[in-house]
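Sat 14:20. Reprocessing the chain from the morning session after the first attempt stalled halfway. Input below, unchanged.
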Amino acid sequence: MAKATTIEKPAELLLVEDNPGDVRLIEEALKESPLQINLHVAKDGTEAMAFLRRAGKHMEARPVDLVLLDLNLPGKDGREILSEIKGDERLRRTPVIVLTTSEAREDVLMAYELNANCYITKPLNLDEFVEVVRTIGEFWFTIVTLPPH
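Finished this time. Tokens:
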């Protein structure tokens, strides 16, 4: 088994999610984690891209280590956001985890064609949902070596 590494500074996680219930569940799951994770929430694609590009009111934002992205968002949807992130020279190395309700084969294929790093279908069971979020944090912030900013 791989040896977990320690985080020297808090990890920066951007959650792109418009469902307040899912946001609350993810916040709670991360609070229970022993990891130091700064969670930032964008409710739509425009806000997400402004945060990632550190534009407007987000000029002082720290660079993001990981993006959790819902596909079904108002306005600019997750597919467009994923395409923009992976098409931007400054952002393309940022890992993007698609975390969505869709189990559609075409959504899975499209996400990987757009270079998503991972595709996870949100569990409907509350405990399973919390466990998935906790596992995402542990895997991406203790086992994986993330690219430097």
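The longest helix spans residues 126-143.
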